[in-house]
Design brief:
The chain has 292 residues and is of the alpha/beta class. The protein is built from eleven helices and twelve strands. It has helices at residues 26-36, 53-63, 87-92, 111-119, 123-126, 138-151, 163-177, 193-197, 242-249, 258-273, 279-288; strands at 12-18, 41-47, 67-70, 84-85, 97-101, 104-108, 130-134, 155-160, 182-186, 201-204, 230-233, 253-255. Bound molecules: NADP nicotinamide-adenine-dinucleotide phosphate. The site of NADP nicotinamide-adenine-dinucleotide phosphate has 26 residues, from helix 4, helix 6 and helix 10.
Length: 292
C-alpha cells in the first residue's frame, strides 16, 4: 500500500465490489503490483450488498473510480447496468472486471483469461478430448465457454448436484455456441465414477472442498482418477483440496485455482494500467500466504 503522503489528487482508485468481501486476496495482490511498478494507484475492497449495486455504480462513476473487479453476488446482475460488454462477457453473461472510460462502464470477463492461462500448456492434449466439469454455476459457465472457444474439446459432461441447473447450462451453450456434445449427470458418486475416469480433464468448478469445508470432495472414489488425466480445482483455499490430493495419489496432473486467480487479476490490471503485473512473484507470495 502506498504511504499516506504519496496518496494525493493524482492517485487513481480501483477496487473490488462484492458481499462478503473480507476474505478477498485481490487488494493485497494489486497493491503489491502497483508498488512494485511504482504506479500511482490504490486498490480498495468495497462491501456492497445486492440491493445497493445500482447506487454503488452511480457512485463509482461520480467519484471517478478508474475500474473495479466484481465478485459474488454481483457478477451476473451487473451485466444489465453496464454500457458495453466484451464478447466473452456477453457469451458467459457475467462480468468480473469493469473499466470506467470517461463515465462509461465497460465490462469484461477475465476469469476466462485465467482459465485459459491455467490450461494452455495442455492445449494439444485437450484437443478432441472428453472433459467433465463439476458444478453448474457462474464459474462452470466460464470454464465451459473457454473449453469450447479455446481448446476445441470434443465432448463435455456437466456433473452437478442440481440436475436442472446442469440442463439449463447445457441448453445455454447449445443455443449460444451451437455446441451439441454436452451430457448432464447428477453428482452422485459412485454413479459418475466411470464418467470421470474416462475424462482427459476433470474440472471442479463447484465450491465443494473450499474452506471451512476442506474435508469435502466432489468424489472420494480413487477409481475416478488415473495418471493420464489433468485435474483442475478452481478452489485455491486450501491450496491442495482433498479432491486434488486424491487425484494426485492416482498419478493425475493436478492444478489448483491460484494461477487462475492471479491471471484473471493480471488481465484486469492490464486493462486498467496498460502494464504487466509481476505474476511470477505474486504467485510465489500467494503460495506461501497463510490460507484464509
Ligand atoms: P456458484 O455460482 O454459487 O455455484 C456453485 C456451484 O457449486 C453450484 O454448481 C452448486 O451446485 C455447487 N455446490 C455448492 N455447494 C455444494 C455442495 N455442498 N454439494 C454439491 N454441490 C455444491 O459459484 P461460482 O461462482 O460458480 O464458484 C464456484 C467455485 O469456483 C467457488 O469455490 C469459487 O471460489 C471458485 N472460483 C475460483 C476462481 C479462481 O480465480 N480460482 C474464480 C471464480 C470462482 P447446485 O447447482 O446444486 O447448487
Amino acid at each position: 500500500m502506498r504511504s499516506l503522503n504519496e496518496i494525493n489528487h493524482n492517485t487513481k482508485i480501483v477496487g473490488v465490489i462484492g458481499h462478503p468481501i473480507k476474505h478477498s486476496l485481490s487488494p493485497m495482490m494489486h497493491n503489491y503490483a502497483f508498488n512494485k511498478l511504482d504506479l500511482d494507484y490504490v486498490y480498495l475492497p468495497f462491501d456492497i450488498a445486492a440491493a445497493n449495486l445500482k447506487d454503488a455504480l452511480r457512485g463509482i462513476v461520480a467519484l471517478g473510480i478508474k475500474g473495479f473487479n466484481v465478485t459474488i453476488p454481483h457478477k451476473e446482475r451487473i451485466v444489465d447496468f453496464l454500457d458495453e460488454l466484451s464478447d466473452g462477457a456477453k457469451i458467459v453473461n457475467a462480468v468480473n472486471t469493469v473499466v470506467n472510460e470517461n463515465g462509461k462502464l465497460h465490462g469484461y470477463n477475465t476469469d476466462v483469461e485465467g482459465i485459459f492461462r491455467t490450461l494452455e500448456d495442455y492445449k494439444d492434449e485437450l484437443r478432441d478430448s472428453t472433459v467433465s466439469v463439476i458444478g453448474a454455476g457462474g464459474a462452470a459457465r466460464s470454464v465451459i465457454y473457454t473449453l469450447i472457444n479455446s481448446f476445441n474439446v470434443e465432448k463435455i459432461n456437466i456433473i452437478n448436484r442440481t440436475t436442472e441447473k446442469a440442463e439449463s447450462l447445457k441448453d445455454y451453450f447449445t443455443s449460444k455456441m451451437l455446441f451439441e456434445k454436452i451430457k448432464t449427470y447428477e453428482l452422485a458418486p459412485p454413479d459418475v465414477t466411470e464418467i470421470l475416469s474416462k475424462s482427459k480433464l476433470i474440472v471442479n468448478a463447484s465450491s465443494i472442498g473450499m474452506m471451512p469445508e476442506e474435508d469435502d470432495s466432489p468424489t472420494t472414489i480413487v477409481e475416478s482418477f488415473n495418471s493420464n488425466q489433468i485435474v483442475f480445482d478452481l478452489v485455491y483455499n486450501p491450496r491442495k483440496t482433498k479432491f486434488l490430493a486424491i487425484a494426485e495419489s492416482q498419478g493425475a496432473t493436478i492444478l489448483n485455482g491460484l494461477k487462475m486467480f492471479v491471471e484473471q487479476g493480471a488481465r484486469a490490471f492490464e486493462l486498467w494500467t496498460n502494464e504487466k503485473m509481476p505474476t511470477d512473484r505474486i504467485s510465489e507470495i500467494l503460495n506461501k500466504e497463510p490460507e484464509l
